[in-house]
Amino acid sequence: MTAINDLLAFQRQTEALSSVAERLGWDQETVMPRGAVEQRSEEMAAIESVLHERRTDPRIGEWLDVADPQSEAEARSVDLIARDFNRASRVPARLAQELARLTSLSQGIWADARANDAPDDFLPTLDQVLMLKREEAAAIADGGDLYDALLDDYEQGMTGAEIAALFDAMRPRLVALREKILDADTRPQPLTGHFPQETQIRLARICATAFDYDWTRGRMDIAVHPFSSGRWQDSRITTRVVETDPFNCIYSTIHEVGHSSYELGIDPDYAFTPLGRGVSMGVHESQSRIYENQMGRGRAFAGWLFHRMSDAFDGLNIADPDAFYATVNRVTPGFIRTEADEVQYNLHIMMRFDLERDLISGRLSTDDLVDAWNARFLRDFGVAVDRPANGVLQDVHWSVGLFGYFPTYALGNVFAGCLNRAMQDAVPGLDDALAAGDASPAVEWLRENVQRHGGLKRPRALIEDATGGDVSPEPLLAYLEQKFGQIYGL
Amino acid sequence: MTAINDLLAFQRQTEALSSVAERLGWDQETVMPRGAVEQRSEEMAAIESVLHERRTDPRIGEWLDVADPQSEAEARSVDLIARDFNRASRVPARLAQELARLTSLSQGIWADARANDAPDDFLPTLDQVLMLKREEAAAIADGGDLYDALLDDYEQGMTGAEIAALFDAMRPRLVALREKILDADTRPQPLTGHFPQETQIRLARICATAFDYDWTRGRMDIAVHPFSSGRWQDSRITTRVVETDPFNCIYSTIHEVGHSSYELGIDPDYAFTPLGRGVSMGVHESQSRIYENQMGRGRAFAGWLFHRMSDAFDGLNIADPDAFYATVNRVTPGFIRTEADEVQYNLHIMMRFDLERDLISGRLSTDDLVDAWNARFLRDFGVAVDRPANGVLQDVHWSVGLFGYFPTYALGNVFAGCLNRAMQDAVPGLDDALAAGDASPAVEWLRENVQRHGGLKRPRALIEDATGGDVSPEPLLAYLEQKFGQIYGL
Fold this sequence. Notes:
homodimer; mainly alpha; Neurolysin, domain 3; three-stranded mixed β-sheet; 64% helix; globular; Metal-dependent carboxypeptidase (chains A, B)
């Protein structure tokens, strides 16, 4: 009994310190004075150094050797602690430090290169990051597949081969749907006008409330790139405002409410344990996506939102709720992943997945990356990339070493598809509530079936228990074909 | 060379973590969702536990044994690290934990007792705090005076006997001045009206800018009790708003700008070292007070402020700058220390100093504290305390174990008096600049002579070097007699 108690008490403090580090990151992106950058970097380094020491503390190995968990939750906690300890212990301290130093620099180099449309300024640094990440993957994989070792950090138990099979099954139907839409005569009208920041923020708060965001355990601020931050009793969201495009603010907000509500919905008994957080990036994204897309961009909620926005902005250039529903679901050609609609988004992910898998395996070198990106984009989207900032330089992920992260976005969409089908079957009257600006019946179902479990179940098991079936792309594809077929009269 | 470098590198990380803890405290008082209290308490406990372990790390003792400082700054850093290490090491871990647990509880018990005007609900807890603080003082004092051991934590090198002598020298002239003022025929008019929050905040920002607050390394938020937080590149202020009393907001802001500017004014080379913070509570208070009182409530700045406030609030019930100057310096009878004017403030401190010294020495028991307080207040102020919330329950300090802290407020006033006289002699045209809403010539003198040195010099030496004379209450008393004599026509 002593070993398990000591282990969990030690972990409790580590979880608290890790939560502090996350709060510090929030501060930096929202309220920190701009002159405090160097100081914050030293503060973050100090707390990360404490965290690294704790995660590789040899006492964890000793406790694990004799730990005797007394419940399912304790057993799963021990598994997760062991997994992190083994991953962290396999990476030499020298490599961990080099990666930390390089990725803190390389993000700035990437940002400058993107601003200057100059990939050659960034690719040598990316190559260094890639070499270190391959070294890290080799240390963790211990003879296994390098990409799988990286992917497992974001999506426990998932392999590159499984993702590849999933994407192969999805691609033909997505490509076909995309082509039909772009060939269709229907062209939903874009929203135009000037939409003052203050009104957008007020509407965003109303939408967050409609999605049952718990303001007593959260808050909303403005950030350059929207994110959510924190867990248990304190999960905050951020949004951004573009005064020509209020959907940016509103749908970013609903998306982040999905992420934050997942963290806030976890069983409070799991706070300060490894179960007290979203179980994987894919499941996390399933929550943000089902809030934003299946609900937020659904016909019922769009009808409610149309009236709220018409009132707030004194009329819109969109005639009625049906036209508005088509507007929030417009499909147009575009280079940028983060601006993509529900149909094309997954195609953006698939090309990144294939490219990064080849980079990690060594089949593709960074020297050939720009050509490979551009050729693949032309093949998948039928348009030539006009400039690197719209191509290979658009995403921050690789610059900070996030290889294996991209596929979890599409996996989140697949999970959201499965969950949405099950939820529609299980809860009658969802659309009536959403049409009245009330997502709470849906949120309650998600909380009960997904969110409250935190890290207790493995990701795939969690979704399968919630939906009563295997994880499959079929519900997502059927949903997209039905929804966009109707909007575009296909 | 290795020992000193290792010691300073270790300290650097400790300083960074301590800065993180302070930032977390700021978050709690300003932006934290109200439902996150328990979580924050566990996060704070985790980081304080890491800090306590580092402050008593046995390696510090080993490094100190062989440390060979290479400069005056390094030598002083080593002294300060040794001082903290010795203090922390002398306190048994069991006692430190009991004190931490008790004082986190007792603050709430005090707040409830004050709200209910029920001293008996609080005094048993205060007695427990007192017993633990005496035990702590005995451990640190190692045979020396208990009160001195506590005082030294806030004001290095100062003793209770020195404070007592200083206060004895001040009391008669303060009492005489107070009586003459209250007997005078002059009665400055109070400011009355309704002053909207938004306008007050805008004015407060203008005042902070007038006092050269560096907004690139700071920010201002609203808090229940105004405070400043942080150092080096990030020192934030808070203020409060009472819509019937804009002076509360404005002078709180100027006061906190004094504290924050001290931290921001320290030589950047001292960041992340023990020299990188205000050297004592007394010196800290000297900066907040000279900003707020000698400058902020001086005739020159008051004239400028009169016009700013008249414009912002569309006229005031005060006729002209001279009357306004008298209004911001009104002396009226009152029970509450934090609301006291410059003349009576120090009398509030003197009675607390005598009472807490007797509590620590055992000459006074908590059973007799209410009677002792009320008797002393009647003697010093000529008025009977009407209820405990206006008497012994008014201050938070003792509930959280801050014995030895009160006298540093009056010491700050004494230091401010000395600094003000030297500054007036050294810098011509201060009042002309203040009359134009520009405190920067004064701030520059303070930065050069006080703030930039951080912890390099001991408190008294710092003030004496800055003023070219001994620390004495004479300049403060002469300033008060001259200023209030003129306002009240004495």
